[in-house]
Amino acid sequence: MNIAVMGPTGSGKSTFIKAMTKRDDIAVGSNLKPETNIVQGYPVEIGSESFVLIDTPGFDDQILTDKDVLGMIAAWLQNSRPAVKLTGIIYLYRINDNRLHGSSQRAFRMFNRLCGDDYSPNIVLATTFWDMVDENKGISREAELRGSEHWKRMIESGAGVERIHNYEECQHILEIFTRTEPKNLHVQEELAVTGASLSDVVDSIADSAEMKALKAQQTADREAAEALASRQAKAQEDKARVAARRERESARRVLEQQEALRNTQAEAHATA
Ligand SMILES: Nc1nc2c(ncn2[C@@H]2O[C@H](COP(=O)(O)OP(=O)(O)OP(=O)(O)O)[C@@H](O)[C@H]2O)c(=O)[nH]1
Ligand SMILES: [Mg+2]
C-alpha cells in the first residue's frame, strides 16, 4: 500500500522513511534549508504488509513555494503508472514549532485542500521533535494544535493524531493504515472528473481567495514579527547607549575628583 509522508520542511519526513526502511541512501537535512526536492517512493515490508513510503518535498517558502510542492505531489500522482491511490498520508509537524499562524497554517490548509475533507480518515497527523520540548509543554502544544482551525477540521472529519518519540518505533503508525481503504485525493478526483489540467487544478487551489488571505495574514504576521524584533533591537541599542553615557559620566566624575584632590593637595603643599 502507498503511504505518502508530507509536512513542512525539516519536520522529519525523510528521517521517518529512513528509519522505517533502514536505508542509508535517503538524505536527511543537516540544517534549516530544505533537503528533499523530489517525490520518491521507497518500498518496505513491515510485518506481513508491503508498503511504499513516498517521501515528498516540504511545504516551505524559501526555495519551493507551497504551490510548487502541491504541483509536484499532484504531478507525481497523476503520472504514476499504474495509477497510485494512496492508502494514507502521514502529515508530520514539529511539536516545537510555535508558528501557529503564517506559513505553517497556510501550508496545512494547502495540504487540506489537496486531500479534501473526505480523505481525513486516511490521514494521520504525527508530531515530531518531542525530544526538543519539555513533555508538559509538548502536551499543551498538542492540545493547542488540536484546537486550531485546520487541525480541528481534519480531526473532526476523521484524521488520527500520533506522537513520534522514537523513529525506530513507528511501525504502529503504518499499521493504522491496514484498516483503511485506498482512496483518491480530492485533487485526483478533480483531475479525473472535471478533466481539468493539472496546472489549472493546482492554480485554482493555490490562487484561491482563501490562500491569498492566508498569504496576506502570513505577510502581516511576518511584518509584525520583524517590527517587534526591530523595536527590541532599538531598545537594546538605546540601553547600551545610555549605559555607555553613564560610564563616560562616571569616568569623568572620577577624573574631576582626582583633579580636585590634586588641587587640594597642591594648595595644602603651598600653604605648608
Ligand atoms: N532533535 C530532533 N531532530 C530531528 C527529529 N526529526 C528529524 N530531526 C532532524 O531534523 C533535520 C531534518 O529532518 P529531515 O528528515 O530531513 O526533514 P524533512 O521533513 O525530510 O525535510 P525536507 O526534506 O527539507 O522537507 C535532520 O537533521 C534530522 O536529523 C526529531 O524528532 N528530533
Ligand atoms: Mg526530506
Number of domains: 2
Return Rg in Å. 28 Å
**Unreliable segments of 5+ consecutive residues:** none
Question: Sheet with the most strands?
Answer: 6 strands, mixed
**CATH architecture classification name of the largest domain:** 3-Layer(aba) Sandwich
The helix count comes to 9
Distance between the termini: 106 Å
- Are any ligands bound, and if so which? guanosine-5'-triphosphate, magnesium ion
Strand elements, count: 6
Average pLDDT level = 88
- CATH class call of the largest domain: Alpha Beta
SSE blueprint:
Blueprint: E1 2-6, H1 13-21, E2 40-46, E3 49-55, H2 66-79, E4 88-94, H3 103-115, E5 123-128, H4 135-147, H5 149-156, E6 160-163, H6 171-176, H7 186-194, H8 198-206, H9 209-271
Parallel strand pairs: 1-3, 1-4, 4-5, 5-6
Antiparallel strand pairs: 2-3
Helix pairs in contact: 2-3, 2-8, 3-9
The structure holds guanosine-5'-triphosphate and magnesium ion.
Kindly describe this structure.
Residues 225-272 are annotated as: Disordered. The model has no long low-confidence stretch (mean pLDDT 88). Helix 2 runs parallel beside helix 3 and helix 3 (103-115) packs antiparallel against helix 9. The chain has helices at residues 13-21, 66-79, 103-115, 135-147, 149-156, 171-176, 186-194, 198-206, 209-271, and strands at 2-6, 40-46, 49-55, 88-94, 123-128, 160-163. The protein has 272 residues and is α/β, with parallel strands linked by helices. The protein is elongated, with a radius of gyration of 28 Å. It folds into 2 domains: 2-197, P-loop containing nucleotide triphosphate hydrolases (Rossmann fold), CATH 3.40.50; 208-272. The N and C termini lie far apart (106 Å). A 6-stranded mixed sheet has the order 2-3-1-4-5-6, with helices on both faces. Bound molecules: guanosine-5'-triphosphate and magnesium ion. Guanosine-5'-triphosphate binds next to helix 1. Guanosine-5'-triphosphate binds at residues 9-15, 28-30, 34-36, 57-58, 128-129, 131-132.
